């Protein structure tokens, strides 16, 4: 069974693009919501033309990530694994932002950017932070909320937030330099 750090890697074991990750994640979500997935569904979800989606699906099929049969787009086993890992990575970054009061649309957009992080060591280190430290670190560094606003949203003192951020930074440095 994979650990959280492995789950966060998405498609990193192959030469893929951010776009490929977005496509397989979209296919997975659409199939879970509707039970089937068509080119037009992907186009609407990602905001691309149907022709662009068709071209991308051909590339993904050549990589062995998707199959298209009678207008139904399906993920292969490898595509399913990659999509699940990408979605897990997205949710990993999205959840603490939403829990801290960031509106869902902003949290999802920020999580979408962060899930494409190329530094597997960085993501693995983030997975190892305590949830409170991760949430506060993301609010401060990604959403760029000031300490005062984080304290207000969390219902704690500014001092507690500063302490938590300092601990998170120290822990990240230790994880990234020592690997433990």
Summarize the topology.
Blueprint: H1 4-7, H2 18-34, H3 39-46, H4 50-62, E1 66-69, E2 72-75, H5 77-99, H6 104-114, H7 120-128, H8 131-141, H9 147-154, H10 158-178
Helix pairs in contact: 2-3, 2-5, 3-4, 5-6, 5-8, 7-10, 8-10, 9-10
**Strand arrangement in the largest pleated sheet:** 1-2
What name goes with the CATH superfamily of the largest domain?
Winged helix-like DNA-binding domain superfamily/Winged helix DNA-binding domain
Backbone shape? elongated
CATH topology of the largest domain: Arc Repressor Mutant, subunit A
Number of strands: 2
The structural class is: mainly alpha
Percent range for β-strand residues: under 5%
| SSE order | HHHHEEHHHHHH
Tally of discrete structural domains: 2
Task: Report on the architecture of this protein.
Strand 1 and strand 2 form a beta hairpin. The longest helix has 23 residues, at 77-99. This protein has a two-stranded antiparallel sheet. It is mainly α and 180 residues long. 69% of the residues lie in helices and 4% in strands. It is elongated, with a radius of gyration of 18 Å. It is built from ten helices and two strands. The protein has two domains: 4-82, Arc Repressor Mutant, subunit A; 106-178, Winged helix-like DNA-binding domain superfamily/Winged helix DNA-binding domain (Arc Repressor Mutant, subunit A). Helix 2 (18-34) packs across helix 5 (77-99). It has helices at residues 4-7, 18-34, 39-46, 50-62, 77-99, 104-114, 120-128, 131-141, 147-154, 158-178, and strands at residues 66-69, 72-75. The model is unreliable at 1-15 (pLDDT under 50).
